[in-house]
Write the structure tokens for this entry.
Amino acid sequence: MTEMRVELVLTAVVGLGALSIDMFLPSLPTIAAVFGAVGGALLAVPTGLADPLLAYWTHSGNLVFMLLLGGFDHFLGPLVGALVFILLQDTVMSLTAYWRFVFGAILAVVVIFFPRGVLGLLDPRAGHSG
């Protein structure tokens, strides 16, 4: 299923099929690494350093949480999820020292009751399956 989605994305990026998708598949890890490197370089500008602790697993967990929170069906889902995540984190961290426990509960509620995220609530297609 994942391979099919990658091919659909590549078909959309390549266009109307003028180029072969097969020529892009071997270079996908390189493309992902380039985006990661650019992201790390952009992060070093405002923070002043690129700390190796930023590669710790909790940071990637935060990114997955942002994606699930906003909704992965929509282009702006990760952006909305990041905004909601930062606002929630600031609020919950100011209220309790056990903010990670609260975030875990919020993640469970989102996954169980709102599987399409915040933007899925606003989508008119939400009632349709498929």
